[in-house]
Write a structure and sequence with these properties.
Layout (H helix, E strand, L loop, with lengths): L7 H15 L6 E2 L11 H14 L15 H12 L11 E4 L2 H7 L9 E6 L3 H9 L3 E6 L17 E5 L11 H14 L2 E5 L25 E6 L1 H4 L7 E4 L8 H12 L5 H9 L3 H27 L4 E3 L5 E5 L14 H13 L1 E2 L1 E2 L10 E5 L4 H14 L1
Parallel strand pairs: 1-11, 3-4, 3-5, 5-6, 6-7
Antiparallel strand pairs: 2-8, 7-8, 9-10, 10-13, 12-13
Helix pairs in contact: 2-9, 3-9, 4-5, 10-12
């Protein structure tokens, strides 16, 4: 398979730039942004200041840290993200990282180049591109309204499956029963699951699992990736973690440890102290408030767009909404461009609102656009009002 040029966000930026140059008075609002906008919470800022002061004193200065992360953070992760939910994870199974993008991209180094890799379609591009760079074959599992965005078990032999829930880009989730089917399939067929839980903190519904290890047998077949990026606004701070159980059917814990000790020198002490702070009582309360702020945007977007007649998926347990593109113009799409790009153009030119064309996330994304709830309330409401006025 060929590596795509992956000019999605560059193409979008170019189109937005061109529009702004032609329409300098237009106030363009982006609902396409995949980055957070709210600042770090006070508990995190305080922890960063304190850690910086420690670094300036001989007695408390820290140099190279342990490659797998400091015990204070690994223990906080185990206690709060696992034991508090009745899940048995050991600190030796936690690998602190500089974020989930690097780990989801790098973990494939432990696989043979012959491995066949399944991904959902649409998909977070990192899983595909990192494996294509290694020369592996990719099997795409379409997720559309027709199958309620629940990927079907592959019809052919695959070795690895990447699952991301709550999902980027569709904002949809799997129930515990739906996820258990994947775990059962993986165990029966010696398949490894790479589970990306980057949006776990946005889950509001009761029956949506926060971790794949809520299904106990998953300890034998699944690696789980976490990030503080969306949970606590760490996109610029950089910190995440990966769980590699010692009970996996293949001994990846030792291998990943070996790989990390060779190629990674650990996450900065400051980032790890900052991450530790989100597990304090104040930190928990503060990050919950920021997530509630984004989820209020999501609720407003969902209700308003549905009220306008749009078909909207996601947005209840994730900061993303996956919106079916309506047929706005009877004219045929420009050559090579499907309805998601046409709708993108309409939104930009009519409402001065930026969205992300679904086709950019894979062929099954055609016919949808992704909107994000990461904007401010004011900008989000203004964008919705403009769409309403222009329809
Ligand atoms: C944002 C995001 C991440 C987090 O990446 P970081 O490197 O931790 O910032 C991981 N997976 C998905 C699907 C994401 O959208």
């Amino acid at each position: 398979m060929e590596l795509s040029g992956n000019y999605l966000f560059a193409d979008i930026a170019k189109k937005v730039q061109a529009f702004k140059e032609e329409n300098p008075e237009a106030n363009v609002i982006s609902l396409g942004i995949g980055d957070v906008t709210q600042p770090l919470c006070p508990a995190v800022v305080e922890a960063l200041h304190k850690a910086a002061d420690e670094m300036g004193q001989t007695a408390t200065f820290r140099g190279y840290g342990p490659e797998r992360g400091y015990d204070f953070l690994r223990n906080a992760i185990v206690e709060n993200d696992y034991r508090a939910r009745g899940i048995d994870i050991d600190a030796e199974e936690v690998f602190v990282s500089d974020g989930a993008k690097s780990d989801t991209g790098n973990f494939q180094e432990l696989l043979s180049d012959e491995c066949v890799v399944a991904v959902t379609d649409p998909v977070y591009p990192v899983y595909v591109d990192s494996n294509v760079m290694a020369g592996r074959r990719i099997v795409k599992l379409p997720c559309t309204a027709e199958n309620s965005f629940v990927p079907g078990i592959p019809g052919e032999r695959v070795d690895v499956v990447y699952l991301c829930y709550p999902n980027n880009p569709t904002g949809t989730t799997l129930t515990k029963d739906q996820l258990k089917k994947w775990v059962d399939y993986a165990l029966r067929n010696d398949v490894l699951i790479f589970y990306d839980a980057a949006y776990e903190a946005f889950i509001q519904s009761e029956n949506v699992p926060h971790s794949i290890y809520e299904i106990p047998e998953a300890r034998r077949c699944a690696v789980e990736f976490h990030s503080f990026s969306k949970t606590a606004g760490f996109t610029g701070v950089r910190c995440g973690y990966t769980i590699v159980p010692k009970t996996l059917n293949v001994p990846l814990n030792r291998l990943w440890s070996r790989r990390q000790c060779t190629k990674f020198n650990g996450t900065s002490y400051l980032s790890q102290r900052a991450a530790e702070a989100i597990y304090t009582p104040e930190g928990k309360k503060q990050i919950r408030a920021t997530i509630a702020y984004y989820m209020e945007n999501a609720r407003l977007m969902r209700e308003t767009l549905t009220g306008m007649g749009f078909t909207v998926y996601g947005g209840t347990d994730a900061p993303y909404l996956w919106v079916k593109t309506p047929s706005l113009t009877p004219a045929p799409a420009p050559k090579g461009e499907g309805s998601s790009w046409r709708f993108f153009d309409w939104m930009l030119h009519s409402a001065h609102v930026v969205c992300t064309p679904g086709a950019g996330f894979g062929p099954s994304g055609e016919g949808y656009v992704r909107l994000t709830a990461f904007g401010t309330h004011e900008a989000t409401m203004e964008a919705l009002q403009r769409i309403k006025n222009k329809l």
